[in-house]
Model the fold of this input.
Amino acid sequence: MRQLAIISLLSLLTLAIGTQALSQNCERLQQATLDELVTYLQSSEGDPSNAECVTFAIYRLGDTRYSPAIPELVTLLGFRRPLDEHEKLGYHIRMRDYYPAVDALQQIGEPASSAVLHAITEDSTPQVARKNAVIVWMGIHRNEPEKAVLALKRARDGATEQSTKEHLTRAMTQALQWCSPQDKQKCDLAAKESQ
Amino acid sequence: MGQYLDQDPIDIILQQVFGVTITGYDGCYGNPVDVTGYYTTWGTNDGSVATAQNAQVTGVGAGSTSSFGQGSTPRYASRGSCPWLQRTASAPTNVVAATLTQQTSGSVSSDNGALAAYNSAEGTTNLGPIIGTGTVGSGCFIGNQVTGSIVPAAYSGTVIIHRWIMNDAEYTNSAQTGSSSNEDDTSSPTYRDDNPQSGGSAGKVYDLDAPGKGDIPADGNVYRYRGNFYAYATLADGTRISPYYNYFVRVSCKNTGSGPQFDNSLPGDNTVQAGTTLTTWNFQ
Done:
């Protein structure tokens, strides 16, 4: 038993040392497996001092559409990436969000839907993360935005907790802003669908 | 049980030589077996799109056809011997290519799935010189849309438009404040539409960009950006399927107290065009 405990402690120490070493040099993350990237994100918890490396890991998991990373990416919906050299001077050259998990979850797409909806409705979700969750929700369903609005409405109508209803009402208001002009009418109709 | 081409559909690009395999099932246990070696005759239905021989399909011209292999394969029986069976295995074949064009005025295409995201970022769906009021901040931007037109138009795989900065420079009045070169500038998925069939596109993918300066201080200075870019389209695996498209962006912006406005004191400023530009503050 004691031997097992020592082995477990050593494993944890190895992981901790490994994580620290990785965070000191993002280049090492480039060799990491996708599972290791998820572990890295879990251990760094969006630590601002590792922001470059956290950003790298999030983008990589999104680019590879690695669905086992969904829970971790959802917890990082409020993580804001560091500015690039252009942005530090106030220039916006590259079109990308400030929140990399928004991009990553959209790339993963439909498999992330239920976790994202959960983030929208959970009381414990921070405000920025909740707003970003709605952006992801509409991004995942951007080819049928009216259905995305309708799903929020039905979730709200079916919710029993008052706070959940309020979260979903605000989410619907925000979601309607993500309907393009030609989809606006369909989205409005979906939002007004009678029960 | 039938025998089939393992690659179905076969998506290749011009001049690509792509190896294919055929799987059958053994008659005793039903286990899958590689039977490619039994197939001796190969071809396609349209030699102007693709050719096939010796289990290799070659892309000749953009379009769709069907590739097939034919051969005699053994037929297993519990007793005695049976004649070999003449079989054909085929698969639809797409030779995928894309042509890039750029839209620099008017509005974002209505079938562009990234339209809403662009509208949120810039506060408008207009292209060309725009005063952005969206999430990227209030400032001067040059909105542009790159469209990838895919052949065959029915192709439904992912096609990504990439963008790189060849070189660029930033200035306050005539003093350089920054520069970069050879930098991947590909838009995040939020601002791309990689699905050639989404929104009724029928073979079009899109990328949106709006380089410029946000949050212009009301100091009367002119903030300038000059950049050379190139764009190209790839399949999901990174295979390039379009020629490179070179273009440049010039923008100059100031705020004298009434909000950001374009500074047009230099002819040819505040534009996006095909080709390249000098990245000096005054193009000289």
Remarks:
- Residues 1-23 of chain A have pLDDT under 50 and may be disordered.
- Residues 58 and 177 of chain A are 26 Å apart (CA to CA).
- The beta strands of chain A are 91-92.
- The two ends of chain A are 59 Å apart (CA to CA).
